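Risk register update: the risk of archive-format incompatibility is retired. Evidence:
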Amino acid sequence: MNDIIYCCVMTDRSEFKDASPELLSALGYDFSSWKDEETKEIKHTLYFSNEKDSVDAMNTLMAKEEEFNSFGIRFTDFSCTKLKKEDWAEVWKIHFKPLVISDTLAITPTWEHFEPKPGQVLIKLDPGMSFGTGQHATTKSCLASIDRFISELRGKGQKEIAMLDAGSGSGILAIAARKLGCTRVDAFDIDPDTVGVARENAQKNGIADQELSIAAASLMEYESDTRYDIVAANILSSALLAGKEKLLSFCKPGTRLILAGILDAEYFKVKEAFEATGHCTELYNVLEKEWRGGAYLVK
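Archived output:
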């Protein structure tokens, strides 16, 4: 058994510090971040099961320097190193703490004791080597919108609620939807390594395999005959723009469409593109740090 994890380490000198973790998450990297409170220097560590992948990641990120710089993200001082698995596990525990989304939803890591309020759904997650812990701004925004829309639909007496999670990662959005009352939840992610982690997280929350469909596929590859009541897409704006028609094909009149993973500077371009299809209208948008997410009503 390999007890070594291979790492790609970099210093974050970005204009928008909060944007970098979201970018790395959206690119599918498993990572943790550390900040020196004295110098304010931030370092990100990406984790891999073999040395070649860590070197490939370093070369890929260095090659994208100009592209990243164009939207205020700058990584420097790259290096590759090794880490024992038991040390890596402790790194996650430092950065992942209980998070209250609303009076009806809270997230906690499996190693933390958290007492939910009466009627508050508690989701327990072990991040494993996957991303999506609820800590980042876009994930929190999606969770809040899912919570809100399920409550609205149930308040109207709707008993059957179907939800699609596009770009599911650790499965946090899909798990929340199921625990909050959705009767059908489907999810997919372009990274096949996340499927097992999401399935394990679902099981830890009492969700049987047959209660949550999780597939490895890109947005353009994914197929479903279902037209969902709620569709959440927490992916990069470039993927949203390229796949807007495909995403809307999973919707029906009345669907609540949640778009996230969008830098504030890029949000209105995405909003314009989706509303230009004539199939949806913005209900609201939420700005948190440098990220803006929007919720839409499909016509």
